[in-house]
């Protein structure tokens, strides 16, 4: 069936060639109506030439347009082998495109319906996404730029929820962005698509005069005949197959990676879709807005990313884009898909802007004055002028720690990247400091490395990168130097990947088993093994040393990011209770996320152990977390960063969030019966203290130096064997050895006694020792060097070090984990140290009944079970936590067992810690835990 219509040009009626309603493409409807191609079967080369001519491009760029068009035209009528052969041999059937593979069935703009009727209200809606633009030919009109078109397509996809297909959003990239490329006005980022011309295209089936002029000027070509025609078709077919492969890799990288696993390493990592929050709230935790924002972006002296700050901002997202340019790697919306939280450029702005990020314009937090550092030291200012997410920090004033030469600003992750938590519930984002993040750093590392590689490999990408970094007027020498530097970084990263894989493949781990990485996934990180690899291999390589590949170990003991509220008051902070000294703990973490450090023998000896670690900021953060003496508060309590309170006020109308007092009362008694032994009494429940005064947290005999200026809580430690939980993380520091360069002159007995006698310290070789001992000494020397470079007095140095020793934990029960007070426990899912239990409900079930798998990533919070619902069919980009592999064998570090409530505790009870609870008792205890 054909529809016969006319359009009017200059007031005169002009006849058009009828166009079938089964041709749903507005561009093709116009070229058919104008007579540039036939309306039935059109040879694909002819279609390609038509699109090439319409684009206005020349030379190679014009041919690329045709190459992109060919595979699209080839599959437009169907994907069956016979249909593809017909399309290749005869051409695309333009009056049979409806219901083909490219038809989105109403998921797109909806301007043109299935009967080829134009809906004016949808054109009006399209205009609502645009703005007034200056027409290059004069006048003003409504138009949409590339970013506005993207917003429009996202909105179209969103409103089609319930009847859309996963690939429909990808199909949109072959429509409106292509129309912008062909019909757009203006140049660069200001190029826009005229809504008036779109209306003419849909309603009148007429192209702009400038496009018609291009089409009219294309030369006529005579069809090839005989063997030559067949040979040309074979050549075109081969080219089309190659282009189809490129299209598949570009538009469907996740699916290609699954089908051809080796390609997954060179394709962008799949990520969950972004889920914009309709509301966001930062919970009040006793920090004012300004201090909280400083914590989010204060540099700890790290260069986590392998390129300078300015280069990072100039890199594009990895992936091949055929119809559009890729977005920027530093785009907050992209980084949020790795699990990071958006952050404003400044908190010194209007209330409406702050509210979008979850901040209140003012804070009613009651805080002590900002901490004062020793020796007149000051924390460095923190800014976020480029709108990066929480946890990204710019390091200014960088000097090479070995040579002292100035270097470009660096970009690194800071404490907040891993210790800032949030939950989502029905479109509301609740955010809090000090909680476990849900980030996936492995995917971010892969994406950054691929972005660097693609910038050097993909045509045109480096030129755009160089223009952003150097400006449009940079000389060829400047651009060549930039490319050389970026290529060297790419080659170094690729070489390190090969060395790492060879190292872990070539020998068994310290536990005697074959080494293999365990996927960390969203919300988990093997921090200890990563720190070991960074300090005792990568930093040595960066300092010019070779031969330390033996120090590399698989990343196979991932843990959930621990909450850090109250931590400064604990004698032992880590899950495995391994480090007593706060400054060593924090500076060691900074080295682990790539602070610059000089470990070379070549510069002057006084430069050894010099680093970029921002010790002043680390001490300031520790003091912010710590707050004043809790025993001097009335009532007693922590007054630094407070644990977040159950956010029932935010969800006041939702019964799922309402606290049930009768359950709380019963749960309090169960807590006193079962939980107090390890986790001590609750931090802030006066009713508990009244009912169970002998179990009060603040009167516990585990407090040391209670009446001094530095009271400290010695948390309960339990042997791994008795708890029955996964031993992998506890074994890292206990069993992993490292080789040390002899010129380091590490002497454990001497070095670890320098700030207080360490009891029962064995003798170790100066060139091979346990990882824990070596790390403690190296971090000690790095910190000591920082203080001496600033010529601090012994008194000021002692003030920064504080009274605690830098000694290993010599608890007699072997590898162990420490139990922390449960304030804020509701905000720390998933549970157990390795993040293997999705909710409190499953923590209180017998261990054997817990889920062996669940998805990690963009997940909504479950306020009833307090944690995350169990789903084993993961959405695109989410990661699957699994206790076992596909063969049913246990995955190292991923046990879900131990800490089980199912009977009488005792030796040999496989991690049984308490009696079985009834279902009602579980929910009673959960209700009480919500209030802590």
From TrEMBL:
Keywords of this entry: Heme, Iron, Metal-binding
InterPro entries with a match to the protein in the record: Cyt_c-like_dom (IPR009056), Cyt_c-like_dom_sf (IPR036909), CytoC_perox (IPR047758), Cytochrome_c_Peroxidase/MauG (IPR051395)
Domain Cytochrome c: residue ranges: 662-932
Gene3D superfamilies per UniProt: Cytochrome c-like domain
SUPFAM superfamilies linked: Cytochrome c (SSF46626)
Annotated protein name in UniProt: Cytochrome C
Coiled-coil ranges from the UniProt annotation: none
NCBIfam families: CytoC_perox
Highest taxon, organism lineage: Bacteria
A molecular function (GO) term: heme binding
């Amino acid at each position: 069936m054909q529809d016969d219509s006319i359009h009017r040009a200059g007031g005169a009626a002009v006849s058009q060639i009828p166009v079938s309603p089964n041709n749903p493409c507005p561009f093709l409807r116009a070229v058919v109506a104008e007579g540039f191609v036939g309306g039935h079967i059109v040879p694909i080369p002819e279609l390609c030439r038509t699109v090439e001519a319409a684009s206005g491009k020349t030379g190679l760029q014009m041919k690329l347009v045709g190459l992109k068009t060919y595979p699209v035209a080839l599959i437009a009528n169907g994907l069956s082998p016979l249909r593809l052969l017909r399309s290749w041999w005869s051409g695309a059937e333009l009056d049979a495109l409806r219901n083909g593979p490219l038809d989105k069935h109403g998921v797109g703009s909806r301007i043109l319906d299935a009967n080829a009727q134009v809906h004016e209200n949808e054109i009006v809606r399209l205009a609502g996404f645009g703005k007034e633009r200056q027409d290059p030919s004069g006048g003003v009109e409504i138009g949409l730029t590339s970013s506005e078109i993207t917003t429009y397509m996202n909105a179209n996809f969103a409103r089609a929820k319930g009847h859309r297909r996963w690939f429909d959003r990808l199909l949109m990239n072959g429509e409106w962005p292509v129309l912008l490329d062909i019909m757009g006005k203006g140049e660069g980022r200001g190029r826009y698509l005229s809504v008036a011309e779109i209306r003419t295209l849909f309603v009148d089936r007429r192209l702009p005069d400038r496009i018609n002029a291009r089409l009219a000027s294309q030369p006529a070509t005579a069809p090839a005949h005989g063997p030559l025609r067949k040979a040309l078709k074979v050549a075109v077919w081969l080219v089309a197959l190659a282009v189809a492969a490129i299209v598949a890799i570009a538009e469907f990288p996740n699916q290609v990676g699954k089908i051809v696993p080796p390609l997954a390493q060179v394709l962008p990592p799949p990520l969950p879709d972004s889920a914009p929050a309709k509301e966001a709230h930062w919970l009040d935790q006793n920090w004012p807005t300004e201090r909280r924002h400083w914590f989010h972006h204060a540099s700890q002296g790290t260069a986590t990313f392998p390129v300078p700050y300015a280069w990072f901002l100039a890199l594009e997202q990895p992936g091949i884009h055929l119809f559009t340019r890729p977005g920027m790697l530093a785009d907050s919306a992209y980084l949020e898909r790795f699990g990071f939280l958006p952050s404003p450029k400044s908190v010194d702005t209007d209330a409406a802007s702050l509210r979008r990020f979850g901040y209140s314009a003012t804070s009613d937090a009651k805080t002590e004055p900002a901490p004062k550092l020793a020796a007149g030291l000051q924390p460095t200012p923190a800014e976020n002028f480029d709108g990066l997410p929480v946890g990204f920090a710019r390091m200014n004033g960088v000097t090479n720690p070995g040579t002292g030469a100035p270097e470009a600003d660096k970009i690194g992750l800071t404490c907040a990247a891993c210790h800032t938590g949030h939950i989502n519930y029905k479109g509301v984002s609740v955010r809090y400091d000090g909680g476990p993040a849900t980030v996936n750093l492995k995917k971010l590392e892969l994406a950054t490395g691929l972005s660097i590689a693609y910038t050097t490999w993909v045509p045109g990408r480096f030129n755009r990168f160089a223009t952003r970094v150097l400006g449009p007027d940079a000389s060829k020498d400047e651009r060549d130097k930039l490319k050389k530097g970026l290529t060297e970084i790419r080659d170094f990263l690729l070489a390190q990947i090969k060395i790492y894989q060879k190292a872990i493949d070539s020998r068994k781990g310290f536990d005697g088993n074959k080494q293999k990485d365990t996927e960390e996934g969203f919300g988990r990180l093997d921090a200890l093994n990563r720190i070991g690899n960074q300090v005792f291999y990568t930093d040595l390589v960066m300092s010019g040393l070779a031969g330390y590949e033996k120090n590399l170990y698989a990343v196979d003991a991932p843990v959930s990011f621990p909450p850090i509220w109250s931590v400064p008051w604990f004698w032992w902070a880590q899950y495995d209770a391994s480090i007593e000294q706060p400054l060593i703990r924090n500076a060691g973490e900074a080295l682990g996320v790539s602070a610059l450090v000089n470990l070379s023998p070549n510069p002057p000896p006084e430069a050894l152990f010099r680093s970029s670690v921002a010790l002043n900021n680390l001490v300031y953060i520790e003091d912010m977390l710590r707050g004043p003496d809790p025993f001097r508060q009335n009532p007693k309590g922590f007054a630094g960063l407070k644990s977040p309170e159950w956010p029932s006020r935010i969800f006041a109308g939702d019964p799922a969030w309402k606290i049930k007092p009768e359950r709380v009362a019963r749960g309090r008694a169960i807590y006193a019966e079962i939980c107090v032994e390890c986790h001590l009494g609750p931090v802030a429940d006066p009713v508990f203290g009244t009912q169970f005064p002998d179990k009060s947290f603040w009167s516990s005999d585990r407090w040391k130096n209670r009446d001094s200026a530095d009271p400290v809580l010695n948390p309960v430690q339990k042997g791994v064997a008795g708890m029955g939980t996964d031993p992998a993380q506890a074994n890292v520091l206990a069993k992993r050895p490292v080789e040390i360069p002899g010129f380091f002159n590490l002497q454990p007995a001497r070095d670890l006694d320098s700030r207080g006698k360490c009891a029962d310290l064995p003798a170790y070789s100066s060139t091979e020792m346990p990882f824990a001992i070596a790390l403690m000494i190296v971090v000690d020397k790095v910190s000591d060097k920082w203080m001496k470079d600033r010529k601090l007095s012994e008194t000021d140095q002692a003030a920064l070090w504080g009274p605690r020793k830098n000694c290993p934990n010599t608890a007699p029960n072997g590898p162990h984990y420490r139990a922390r007070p449960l304030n804020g426990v509701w905000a720390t899912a998933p549970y157990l140290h390795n993040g293997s239990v999705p909710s409190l409900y499953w923590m209180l079930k017998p261990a054997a009944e817990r889920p062996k798998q669940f998805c990690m990533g963009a997940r909504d919070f479950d306020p009833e079970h307090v944690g995350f619902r169990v789903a084993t069919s993961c959405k695109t980009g989410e990661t699957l936590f699994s206790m076992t592999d596909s063969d049913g064998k246990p995955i190292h570090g991923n046990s879900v067992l131990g800490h089980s409530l199912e009977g009488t505790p005792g030796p040999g009870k496989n991690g049984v810690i308490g009696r079985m609870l009834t279902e009602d008792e579980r929910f009673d205890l959960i209700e009480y835990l919500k209030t802590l």
